[in-house]
């Protein structure tokens, strides 16, 4: 009688354990990239929003047409000129209740055809239906950079520390709570000097 041939078997009892360990390893070591959005605080919805009259000289009209061309007050400019144009508008200091009837901390030309003061200055951004998202983000970055440049100037003059550095430290989760409260007070003080009034709606 012939002997029955035995088929060799593979010990697979530890395969599940190894697979589980590999899964944990990749979950722990893998970095998932996330896209950052725009840092914007949306206003609360109100039943009736009061209409606030805005003087035309206090509005900086910025438009991106369907050909991705940038127009400021209906004049075409390059993206590289947008930051300085915005700074000049915000920092104009034409009329205010400060010293000598003008914004006491503004260093602009005080043109009667530009913004009265930073508290009244409004930036209106309108985009065409076919304008690219990349150009829109680039414009947003330049506008934020213009505000940060003015806020940095006043923060350095007032506190000896830049606004962007304080904001970065404030957003750091490792910053102690007491330090965060201290920074929050300073950040609010600087933001009151140059409040960001950026709207994406028809202001006319």
From TrEMBL:
Key words of the record: Cell membrane, Membrane, Protein transport, Transmembrane, Transmembrane helix, Transport
Pfam families: ExbD
InterPro entries: ExbD
GO terms, molecular function: transmembrane transporter activity
Keyword match Methyltransferase: no
TM stretches of this protein: 12-32
Family: Belongs to the ExbD/TolR family.
Taxonomy, superkingdom: Bacteria
GO BP terms: protein transport
Membrane topology: Single-pass membrane protein; Single-pass type II membrane protein
GO cellular component term, pick one: plasma membrane
Localization terms from the record: Cell membrane
Protein name: Biopolymer transporter ExbD
Lineage: Bacteria, Pseudomonadati, Bacteroidota, Flavobacteriia, Flavobacteriales
